[in-house]
Design brief:
The chain is mainly β. The protein has one helix and 17 strands.
Amino acid sequence: MAISVDGHALRLLISGSYPWRDQVEIAVEAAPPIAHTLALRLPEWCSAPQASVNGEPVNCEPRKGYLHIRRTWRQGDCVELSLPMQVRRVYGHPQLRNLAGKVAIQRGPLIYCLEEADNGTELHNVWLNADSRLSLIEGAGLFSGEILLQVGAARLQYTHSEESALYQYNKVLGQLEPQRLTFIPWFSWANRGEGEMRIWVNER
């Protein structure tokens, strides 16, 4: 990209695999040298951002959500920005009744979801343990280059048939059975045929 500063072009070459990897590199191409402020977004989800210019650490104290770097930029300058992507659990406000007892999964700027293609049907019967840890895996095929998440969980299996009444007087008993779940980035769903998708998952 190029920014016009006092009639001169400040050219920036941005590289990296964000949002899958947490490292972003900005190479500066400027002739002649140009004095300018770069404002780099420091997202709220990142609790410990780090930055350097030509290998020298920069104070990452944000101002209104941005890291401001003021200097005279020269050909060959390089900014390295690190935005560690912790897997986080997201909870709804207590007044959101439909989200009570449920959790969503976020990594970096991305929200993840469960899809039937990986996890089977009846995703409303899947439960995550509150202390279970999600592991990162490299996507393949359709998800090549992406980061997927996996976690040990449980599925509540019921003994019933298609002929069972919708409402019954006897309690339908179920049993928790272990299952390994795969979360994919929300934007990637619905590319493998029709099926269920779920963002908010039961937590126990």
